[in-house]
Write a structure and sequence with these properties.
Largest sheet: 7 strands, antiparallel
Number of domains: 1
Radius of gyration: 21 Å
Structural class: alpha+beta
Helix content: 25-40%
Length: 180
Protein backbone atom coordinates (compact mmCIF):
# COMPACT_ATOMS: atom_id res chain seq x y z
CA UNK A 1 0.00 0.00 0.00
CA UNK A 2 2.85 2.38 0.79
CA UNK A 3 4.27 1.86 -2.70
CA UNK A 4 0.91 2.87 -4.24
CA UNK A 5 0.71 6.08 -2.17
CA UNK A 6 4.25 7.05 -3.16
CA UNK A 7 3.42 6.32 -6.80
CA UNK A 8 0.24 8.48 -6.67
CA UNK A 9 2.13 11.29 -4.96
CA UNK A 10 4.79 11.18 -7.66
CA UNK A 11 2.21 11.51 -10.44
CA UNK A 12 0.42 14.28 -8.58
CA UNK A 13 3.64 16.32 -8.46
CA UNK A 14 4.40 15.58 -12.12
CA UNK A 15 0.88 16.73 -13.07
CA UNK A 16 1.23 19.83 -10.89
CA UNK A 17 4.54 20.75 -12.51
CA UNK A 18 3.11 20.31 -15.99
CA UNK A 19 0.00 22.41 -15.29
CA UNK A 20 1.43 25.00 -12.90
CA UNK A 21 1.04 28.62 -13.89
CA UNK A 22 3.21 31.44 -12.64
CA UNK A 23 1.56 34.75 -11.87
CA UNK A 24 2.73 38.18 -10.84
CA UNK A 25 0.24 40.23 -8.87
CA UNK A 26 -0.08 43.99 -8.85
CA UNK A 27 -1.55 45.90 -5.92
CA UNK A 28 -2.39 49.58 -6.40
CA UNK A 29 -2.27 51.33 -3.02
CA UNK A 30 -3.92 54.74 -3.15
CA UNK A 31 -2.81 57.26 -0.54
CA UNK A 32 -4.62 60.53 0.08
CA UNK A 33 -5.62 62.93 2.86
CA UNK A 34 -8.12 60.37 4.21
CA UNK A 35 -5.46 57.65 4.68
CA UNK A 36 -5.26 56.76 8.36
CA UNK A 37 -2.36 54.30 8.69
CA UNK A 38 0.90 55.85 9.97
CA UNK A 39 2.97 54.63 6.98
CA UNK A 40 0.39 56.05 4.57
CA UNK A 41 0.34 59.40 6.38
CA UNK A 42 4.14 59.68 6.20
CA UNK A 43 4.09 58.90 2.47
CA UNK A 44 1.29 61.42 1.97
CA UNK A 45 3.13 64.22 3.78
CA UNK A 46 6.51 63.62 2.16
CA UNK A 47 5.17 63.19 -1.38
CA UNK A 48 3.15 66.39 -1.04
CA UNK A 49 6.22 68.26 0.19
CA UNK A 50 8.28 66.80 -2.68
CA UNK A 51 5.58 67.66 -5.23
CA UNK A 52 5.53 71.28 -4.09
CA UNK A 53 9.30 71.48 -4.26
CA UNK A 54 9.66 69.78 -7.67
CA UNK A 55 6.71 71.67 -9.20
CA UNK A 56 8.57 74.95 -8.71
CA UNK A 57 10.82 74.10 -11.66
CA UNK A 58 7.82 73.57 -13.98
CA UNK A 59 5.85 76.51 -12.60
CA UNK A 60 8.43 79.28 -12.25
CA UNK A 61 5.93 81.98 -13.22
CA UNK A 62 3.36 80.48 -10.80
CA UNK A 63 0.64 80.37 -13.48
CA UNK A 64 -0.59 76.90 -12.51
CA UNK A 65 -2.08 75.53 -9.38
CA UNK A 66 -2.76 71.82 -9.97
CA UNK A 67 -0.80 68.81 -11.17
CA UNK A 68 -3.33 68.41 -13.99
CA UNK A 69 -2.72 71.96 -15.21
CA UNK A 70 1.02 71.39 -15.18
CA UNK A 71 0.64 68.15 -17.17
CA UNK A 72 -1.51 69.82 -19.83
CA UNK A 73 0.33 73.13 -20.09
CA UNK A 74 4.01 72.52 -19.36
CA UNK A 75 6.18 70.30 -21.56
CA UNK A 76 8.08 67.74 -19.50
CA UNK A 77 5.82 67.98 -16.45
CA UNK A 78 5.15 64.23 -16.70
CA UNK A 79 8.61 63.86 -15.12
CA UNK A 80 6.99 64.85 -11.82
CA UNK A 81 5.90 61.21 -11.36
CA UNK A 82 9.54 60.14 -11.28
CA UNK A 83 10.82 63.17 -9.40
CA UNK A 84 8.26 62.85 -6.60
CA UNK A 85 8.84 59.09 -6.35
CA UNK A 86 12.15 59.81 -4.62
CA UNK A 87 10.16 60.71 -1.51
CA UNK A 88 8.71 57.16 -1.39
CA UNK A 89 11.84 55.04 -1.75
CA UNK A 90 12.92 55.17 1.90
CA UNK A 91 9.43 54.25 3.06
CA UNK A 92 9.38 51.26 0.74
CA UNK A 93 12.52 49.94 2.42
CA UNK A 94 10.66 50.00 5.74
CA UNK A 95 8.24 47.41 4.33
CA UNK A 96 11.06 44.84 4.08
CA UNK A 97 9.85 43.63 0.70
CA UNK A 98 6.31 42.79 1.88
CA UNK A 99 3.26 44.35 0.22
CA UNK A 100 1.11 46.22 2.76
CA UNK A 101 -2.62 45.52 3.20
CA UNK A 102 -2.67 42.12 1.44
CA UNK A 103 -3.14 39.44 4.09
CA UNK A 104 -3.65 35.71 3.70
CA UNK A 105 -6.55 33.76 5.14
CA UNK A 106 -4.75 33.68 8.50
CA UNK A 107 -4.47 37.48 8.64
CA UNK A 108 -0.72 37.56 7.91
CA UNK A 109 0.98 39.81 5.40
CA UNK A 110 2.69 37.43 2.98
CA UNK A 111 3.03 38.91 -0.50
CA UNK A 112 6.65 39.72 -1.37
CA UNK A 113 7.60 42.42 -3.85
CA UNK A 114 10.77 43.55 -5.55
CA UNK A 115 9.39 46.11 -7.99
CA UNK A 116 7.13 49.12 -7.65
CA UNK A 117 5.82 52.01 -9.69
CA UNK A 118 4.80 55.42 -8.36
CA UNK A 119 1.98 57.54 -9.74
CA UNK A 120 1.06 61.08 -8.86
CA UNK A 121 -2.73 60.97 -9.34
CA UNK A 122 -3.66 64.50 -8.36
CA UNK A 123 -2.29 67.40 -6.38
CA UNK A 124 -2.75 71.08 -5.79
CA UNK A 125 -0.03 73.52 -4.79
CA UNK A 126 -2.41 75.40 -2.46
CA UNK A 127 -4.70 72.62 -1.20
CA UNK A 128 -3.05 69.60 0.43
CA UNK A 129 -6.40 67.80 0.71
CA UNK A 130 -6.39 67.27 -3.08
CA UNK A 131 -3.04 65.46 -3.04
CA UNK A 132 -3.40 61.81 -4.06
CA UNK A 133 -0.74 59.27 -5.03
CA UNK A 134 -0.60 55.58 -5.84
CA UNK A 135 2.12 53.01 -5.29
CA UNK A 136 1.90 49.92 -7.49
CA UNK A 137 3.50 46.89 -5.87
CA UNK A 138 4.47 44.04 -8.22
CA UNK A 139 4.78 40.70 -6.46
CA UNK A 140 7.54 38.21 -6.94
CA UNK A 141 6.37 35.30 -9.15
CA UNK A 142 3.94 32.89 -7.51
CA UNK A 143 2.72 29.45 -8.48
CA UNK A 144 -1.05 29.72 -8.97
CA UNK A 145 -2.49 26.39 -7.88
CA UNK A 146 -6.22 27.04 -7.83
CA UNK A 147 -9.06 29.51 -7.46
CA UNK A 148 -11.67 28.79 -4.79
CA UNK A 149 -14.52 31.27 -5.06
CA UNK A 150 -12.88 34.67 -4.67
CA UNK A 151 -9.75 33.17 -3.08
CA UNK A 152 -6.47 32.31 -4.78
CA UNK A 153 -4.34 29.38 -3.65
CA UNK A 154 -0.71 30.25 -4.40
CA UNK A 155 2.77 29.31 -3.31
CA UNK A 156 6.38 30.03 -4.05
CA UNK A 157 7.29 28.25 -7.30
CA UNK A 158 9.86 25.89 -5.75
CA UNK A 159 8.05 25.30 -2.44
CA UNK A 160 5.39 22.80 -1.41
CA UNK A 161 3.62 25.15 1.03
CA UNK A 162 0.66 27.22 -0.11
CA UNK A 163 -1.12 30.39 0.90
CA UNK A 164 -4.82 31.12 0.53
CA UNK A 165 -5.95 34.75 0.23
CA UNK A 166 -8.99 36.67 -0.90
CA UNK A 167 -8.95 38.77 -4.05
CA UNK A 168 -9.68 42.37 -3.13
CA UNK A 169 -10.13 45.74 -4.79
CA UNK A 170 -7.01 47.17 -6.49
CA UNK A 171 -5.33 43.75 -6.61
CA UNK A 172 -5.02 42.06 -9.97
CA UNK A 173 -3.04 39.46 -11.86
CA UNK A 174 -0.41 41.48 -13.69
CA UNK A 175 1.14 38.64 -15.68
CA UNK A 176 0.44 34.95 -16.29
CA UNK A 177 2.78 32.41 -17.78
CA UNK A 178 3.02 28.65 -17.84
CA UNK A 179 5.83 27.22 -15.74
CA UNK A 180 8.88 26.26 -17.77
Amino acid sequence: MLHCVQHDTFWFFVFTLLTMRLITLCYRKIIDAQSSKPWDQLVFEDTYREFRMQAQYFNQQQHYRSFGELLHQVPGAEKLHFLVSAAVRGYLQQLNGVVPDIANNLGQLFLKFSNFHFELINSDLHDKSKHQVAVYFYSDPLAWHDTIGDYLLVGEPAASTTTLFQIQPYLSIHSLQPAA
